[in-house]
Amino acid sequence: MAMAGPLPNERDRVEFSLMSREKSEAASESIQAMGSGFVSLSMALATDTSKHIWATSAAASALASSQSLTQWIECQAALLKIAAASPANPLQLANSTARLVQESLAPIHDRATANAKRLGVL
């Protein structure tokens, strides 16, 4: 745009229009990808959390109703195993979020790369 100067020719105006439309389309696709990604991530997190809550409740009930020391130890081990497998793993959530951001930015990256190739920059 800077090279075209204050009075761009027809070819430059067509290119500017194309770039503008592509930027709008890429932003729209990016927002859609981010929205659907957050919905999917939220649903997966909610599902994992509810499964964990039910499993924890069942294990705690089994522990509370233990009839012997052996049964109590087995139930305690099962409860600890459930606690260790918590779905609120921060690393897993960070990885999922990073992947979501990468997927959301893909339309913008693809358009920018295509523009650079078309304009002979790459």
UniProtKB/TrEMBL annotation:
InterPro entries named among the record's database cross-references: PhaP6-like
Superkingdom of the organism of origin: Bacteria
Protein name, entry field: Phasin domain-containing protein
Taxon lineage: Bacteria, Pseudomonadati, Pseudomonadota, Betaproteobacteria, Burkholderiales
